[in-house]
Amino acid sequence: MPGSLNRYPALVLNADYRPLSYFPLSLWSWQDAVKAAWLERVDIVAEYEHVVHSPSVQIRIPSVIVLKDFVKPQKRAAFTRFNLFLRDEFRCQYCGTGNELTFDHVVPRSRGGRTSWTNVVAACGRCNRHKGSKSLARSGLTLRRSPTAPAPEQLRNLGRKFPPGHLHVSWMDFLYWDAELEA
Ligand SMILES: [Zn+2]
């Protein structure tokens, strides 16, 4: 099989036809997608023009597949570095820059501050160094918003703002129609 076919990822939908995840967008390699279809774990919703051959079969590469069994979304967002950056939209929560991002304890650890959703924010190196072990009030910095634990739904919505570099036209319906309607 030609290696160039790694360029044909399949968008993976949950059984409710919503993407399994947005950030990163749930994508499988064409090999995994074809295998899952062969094993009847997924249905093929849309296909690429390209065809792959084995000695006995020929199959168009799936571009969108849907799981037959529904995967329950998590009730709570995992407290990870990545999810924290995503909650803060990859911006320093003091000055708003997206450069040189680090993590800052709002109440410094040296003053008993916890490592938690409500006390850690994305901060650029400059603001982080400026704040040091000072309290927020003494630092002269202000938070753009007070940090809270995000709901998984909130992270999913934020994830939509950061689409991957490659979007196949057959994915658009599923990404577009799932967006919340704005009043
Ligand atoms: Zn900053």
Mean pLDDT: 89
Distinct bound molecules: zinc ion
Low-pLDDT residue intervals, each spanning 5 or more residues = none
Approximately how much helix is present in the residues?
Answer: 10-25%
Order of helices and strands: EEHEEHEEHHHH
In terms of quaternary structure, what is this?
single chain
Structural class: alpha+beta
In which order are the strands of the major sheet placed? 2-1-4-3
Q: How many E-type strands? A: 6
Measured by DSSP, the beta-strand proportion falls in 15-25%
- Write down the overall geometry: elongated
Radius of gyration: 21 Å
Question: How far is the first residue's CA from the last residue's CA?
Answer: 49 Å
**For the report, how would you describe the main beta sheet?**
4 strands, mixed
> Helical element count?
6
Q: How many discrete structural domains?
A: 2
